[in-house]
Amino acid sequence: MKKFAVIFLFAAIAVAAFTSCKKKSSSVVGDQKSTSAAGNHRILVGASPVPHSQILEVIKNDLKADGFDLVVREFSDYVTPNEALEAGEIDANFFQHIPYMDSFNERGFHLVNVLGVHIEPMAAFSQKYSDAKSLKAAKGITIAVPNDPTNEGRALLLLESQGMIKLRDSSNLSSTPTDIASNPNGIRIVEVEAASLPRMLADVDAAVINGNYALSAGLDINRSLFAEGKESPYVNIIAVRSGKENSDKTIALVKALKNGKVKDYIKSEYKKGEVVCVL
Length: 279
What we know:
The protein is built from 11 helices and 13 strands. The chain has a 6-stranded mixed beta sheet, sandwiched between helices. A 5-stranded mixed beta sheet has the order 9-6-10-5-11. Helices cover 42% and strands 22% of the residues.
């Protein structure tokens, strides 16, 4: 009898342990499902701090109403946001124009444009020259430009539009200093990482700076020596991985950006023309 009682006790302990383990396992699975569901309703967008991140903040509540949590991950450079998107670490990015995205796709990336949002005119700034006329007349000056392929070409095209240089092929958006056919005043072109250009102003005669970095540095486009016009083809876009163009997240993001609030925000926040909405 005593032996039977011992066997019964062990059996009861085993059943209790199995039941406890099963409940615990069910709880973990439930937590995983909950976490997964939350992840499916999160839209993670990589963006430059100014103005891209600020623009995205405008639509957070609209996306929330549609059941999505918008999370903005800020990047301070022009390379890692595309690497993160290609790797699937983020759902979309917002910092670049189409020619720049195309240059990455030529390297084996698979990124597509789903919406053009705004233009940030590229402009020339100087701490040594107060007007474009005196800069254009100067001999042997040093001008800093972005060192990435498309933005460098864009800067050189801007210099060409001002009659300062002549390129071999004005339709080549990826021109480099070796493509300069005529340089009558002997301008020295210095290639610098785009984010560092505002800090270079004290060391060069002028710098051609991307709009977002000019904004971040507090530079006023109306005090630039010259700038791109509104007809610029370098529209800043929302990019996603190929195949994600019609995903629920992409559709929700595009819808929120096009609802009119972003257009109103840009119009009221950037009255000086440093950001031009194309929505």
